[in-house]
Amino acid sequence: MLIIDTCSWLKIRYLEESGVLRIKDLIYESDLWTTHELAKEYEYYLKDYLDLKRFSIQSLKFQKLEKFIDKELDPADLSIIEFGRKNDKALIISDDGAELVILNLFHLKAFQLSEFILFLVNQNILKKTEAINSIKHLRKWRNIKEKKKKKLLREINLIS
Asked: For 49, which DSSP code?
C-alpha cells in the first residue's frame, strides 16, 4: 500500500519533466492508494498529470488528529497520517516536514522522495546512475540539504 503526498508528486513530476527521472509508470504498477482529502489536492494541483483511476481511495475520519491542524497540517496531511495508522502495510512518501515529524512520532513507515529513490536502488528497481542524478537535482533545486545529499550518495555508492 503506497500513498504519496502532493508535494512529493510535484517533485516526481518536476524530475520527469526535467528529463532526470521517470518513475510515475513504475509507481502506477504498485498498490497505490489515496484518501478523499488527498484526492482533492491531486485534482487541484496535479489534474493534468495523475490518473486518479489508478488509485484506490480510502475514506477516513481523523477527529483525534485535528489537534495537529495548528501544526501546519491540512486535512490531506491528516488523512495520510490516519491512513498510515489504520494500515500497518502502508508505505508513505512525503516531503512535508511537519507531516514527517508526526509520521515518525507514530512510528509509521515514511520516506522522503530522496529516501524512496535510495530504496528503489536497494531493491534493484532503479539504476544507481538514475538515483545519483536525481539526488543531485533534488539538492540543486534545494529540496534536500547538502548533508542529506552526501549521505544518500554515499549509501548509493555502497550498494553492490
From this structure: T
